[in-house]
Structure formats: C-alpha cells, structure tokens
Design a protein that fits this description.
Blueprint: H1 5-13, H2 29-39, H3 43-49, E1 54-56, E2 60-61, E3 75-76, E4 82-84, E5 90-91, H4 101-106, E6 115-116, H5 120-125, E7 132-135, H6 141-149, H7 151-160, H8 162-187, E8 193-197, E9 201-202, E10 205-206, H9 210-230, E11 234-238, H10 247-253, E12 257-261, H11 270-277, E13 282-287, H12 298-312, E14 318-322, H13 333-346
Parallel strand pairs: 1-7, 7-8, 8-11, 11-12, 12-13, 13-14
Antiparallel strand pairs: 2-6, 3-4, 4-5, 9-10
Helix pairs in contact: 6-7, 6-8, 7-8, 8-9, 9-10, 12-13
C-alpha cells in the first residue's frame, strides 16, 4: 500500500509502520541556495528531490516597524532585543537583567495581533493534502528569556528571584500562545502538526537541572502542548543537544515528537533512546549532520544512514533526517542526496 506524505507522517506519529520511513530535510538558507543552483531546481523542486514529506506554513509580521537604536544591530526581535552577528546574531543588551516584577509587567510586550494569519490556510491548501503541514508559532520562549535577562543572570534569578523569571515567562508564553491560537483558528483543518522550538541542551547535556526544568519550563511546555492537542494536532518540538534526562518530562508535558535528535551529544545514544522512549516519543532526525554529512563521503553517508534506520525505524515512531534542522553550507549536496535516497530506498517497511 502506498501512502501520501501526510498519511506516512501521521502513521509514524501514531507509532504505526507506514509504507516507508518519513523523510525530513531542513537546511540553512545558504545550503538551500547552493543546492538549488547545483541541481538547477526551484524551491518546490528541491523539496521533491530531497523527498521531504513535510511542508510548513507561516504567519507574517504585520506590526509596527521599529528603527534600530544600536547602529551595530542587524536584527530586532518582536520583544525589542537588537542583535548582531551570524544568522540572527547575539543580543546587544538585556533590558530585564535587573528588573523587578513590576518592571516586567510594565515592559512593552508585543501584541499577538501583529502577526498576520490571513494567508496561512491558502498556503497549506496549495499542497492539496499531500504533505504533513507544520504550523504554529516557533515560540522560542527559553531563548527570548535569555535575551531579555542574560544567561548568567538568568541562572542566578532562577534561584534568587524566581518570581521575576515566572513573570517574564508568563508574558512570553502568553504572546506565543495567542499567536498560535490565532493560526489554528484560521487554519487548523489544514494543519497536521504544531511545530515549535527551544534548545534545552548542549553537547554535554541539559542546560539546566531536571529539577529546574520541571519548575520553570514544563508548565509552559504543557500549556503549548495542550493548545495544540485541543485542536487535535500532534505536537513536535525542536530541541538540540543532550537532553536524555529531560525527555520523560517532555513526554509528560504532552510533546509527541522530538526534533532533531543529535546522537553525537552526551546521553543521546540511539539504541537507548529507542528502547526507553520509542513507544511514547516520535524521534525525528538522528543522522549525524557533522561527523557523517560533513566529514564523510556518499558511501559513508549511506552506511551511517542504514545503521540509523536499522535502530530507529522498527515499530514506527521515527522520521529520518539530519541531526540538525539547518544543514550547513559546507555540507556536500551529494551527501544530502545520499542520505535522502538511502532513507527512501532502505527505509521500507515490509
């Protein structure tokens, strides 16, 4: 039986075995443009060549335009943080570093109505129900919290003034909750997964203790998961790094799928992840973006991809792809093709 991409993904999210393992291919802008030029394809043609079973729809910012106050800044977040550097850069200031609860409430928080959701339904309908549609706001509340306070100061506040941290998080997640709610109200019948992201791990393990993660992060994760589930959507969270110790709490919060599994990080052994959580969590990724896709050739990529599939695909609950969503520009296009073609050819369920 042949599945559509949408059917294939949703079967995996029910921990069933579809016709083959679903394929995910996320890439940096730089790699994407390189691949389009090298393969002489447009955006949709490249998605098809990379055998991507997903498509994503976005709300558009339609709020007020703010002039950059710092001449060095290259980007401004919706929360007023000016940044500089590669990609979205690094914050140039931390306006709530020494804030009281009163100051937090007085801060000029953005209006969720600034995000225009009017085009989302038509964007999704253009794919004619063939693909698994990702929707919802990216909602990186942990990163915004770091921007507003500063990472070192944040860790101090989590112990010394937790009420301030709670107040900031409440405003951040209120905003993201309402934006996603507006998106789902406008187009929930054509969206399959609520996809949002927060990186709670490093190469060496979680960025906070399980106790602090449960205290500060889990309530907000649960709130977003409950929102997605109330619209009958599956919930997938992007989270880099070594986060083994946090996964049970993510499951309890309601996260259905975890993207993008990084096996090179501490604690992220694929066999252990599959054995311990594979019946309760969909794992998305797991093919090493660095040591495999960058450092090896196509033959090595095929070998490593087959090894990952052997471990992760049994009983469903797996989406295959690179272990980081933004495949970097220095990655060989031939290697990515070797990965996706191996997923397609070898990741077949009998």
């Amino acid at each position: 039986m042949s599945f559509t991409s949408q059917q294939r993904v949703l079967a995996a999210y029910e921990h069933h075995e579809p016709d083959r393992v679903p394929c995910w291919c996320g890439a940096s802008i730089e790699f994407w443009e390189k691949a389009k030029k090298e393969l002489s394809l447009d955006d949709e043609g490249l998605r098809l060549r990379f055998r991507d079973d997903f498509r994503r729809v976005f709300a558009e910012y339609a709020g007020p335009e703010f002039a950059l106050e710092n001449k060095q800044a290259t980007y401004r977040t919706v929360f007023g943080i000016e940044r500089k550097g590669y990609g979205y850069g690094q914050p140039l200031s931390h306006p709530l570093a020494d804030a009281t609860v009163k100051r937090v409430h007085e801060y000029p928080w953005p209006d969720p109505a600034w995000m225009d959701v009017s085009k989302i339904k038509s964007q999704a309908q253009a794919y004619n129900g063939q693909y698994a549609i990702l929707g919802g706001d990216w909602s990186p509340f942990w990163h915004d919290l770091i921007d507003l306070v500063g990472m070192e100061e944040l860790y101090v506040k989590m112990y010394m003034t937790p009420d301030v941290v709670d107040a900031i998080l409440q405003h951040l997640v209120d905003y993201y909750f309402e934006v996603s709610q507006r998106i789902f109200d406008a187009a929930t019948d054509v969206i399959d997964l609520f996809f949002f992201g927060n990186d709670f791990g490093s190469q060496m393990g979680p960025l906070m203790s399980p106790k602090m993660f449960e205290r500060f992060m889990v309530p907000h994760l649960k709130r977003l998961c409950d929102l997605g589930h109330s619209y009958r959507l599956k919930v997938q969270m992007h989270c880099c790094g070594g986060i083994y110790e946090l996964i049970p709490m993510m499951i309890d919060a309601g996260i259905d799928g975890l993207h993008a599994v990084q096996p090179s990080c501490k604690g992220m052994d694929l066999k252990r992840l599959k054995a311990d959580f594979g019946d309760r969590m969909v794992f998305n990724g797991a093919i090493d973006s660095h040591h495999t896709l960058i450092e090896k050739g196509p033959v090595g990529v095929r070998e490593d991809t087959r090894e990952v599939l052997d471990t992760m695909m049994p009983s469903g609950g797996f989406v295959a792809g690179a272990s980081h969503d933004a495949i970097l520009e220095e990655t060989s296009v031939a290697n990515v093709l070797a990965m996706v073609d191996t997923i397609y050819e070898y990741g077949v369920y009998s």
